[in-house]
Amino acid sequence: MSQKYSGGFITKSPVAPTSSAASGIWTLDQQQQAKQAGNWPAPPNFIEEVFSTYLWTGTGAARTITNDIDLSTKGGLVWIKDRNNARSHSLYDTARGANICLLSNLTNANLTDTDALNSFTSTGFTLGAENRVNASTETYVGWTFREQPKFFDIVTWTGTGSNTTIAHNLGSVPGCIIVKRTDTTSDWAVYHRSLANTQYLVLNTTAAAATGATWWNSTTPTSSVFSLGTDATVNASGGTYVAYLFAHDSGGFGLTGTDNVISCGSFTTDGSGNATVSLGYEPQWLLFKNSSAGGYPWYIFDSMRGLTVGGTDRELLANSSDAEGTNNIASPSATGFSFGAGPASNTYIYIAIRRGPMKTPTVGTSVFSPVSTSGNVTSITAGFPVDLALGKEVKNSTGYGNYAIDRLRGGGALSETNTTGAEYTSQTFKFDSNTQFLQSSGGLFYGPSIYWLMRRAPGFFDEVCNTGNGSAQLLTHNLGVIPELIIRKSRSNSGPYWLVGLTYLSYANDEYLQLSTTGAVYVGGGSYWNSTAPTSSVFSVGSNSYSNGNGYTFVTYLFATCAGVSKVGSYTGTGTTQTINCGFTAGARFVLIKRTDSTGDWYVWDSARGIIAGDDPYLLLNSTAAEVTNTDYIDTANAGFEISSTAPAAINASAGTFIFLAIA
Question: According to the model, what pLDDT value does residue 19 have?
Answer without folding.
Answer: 36
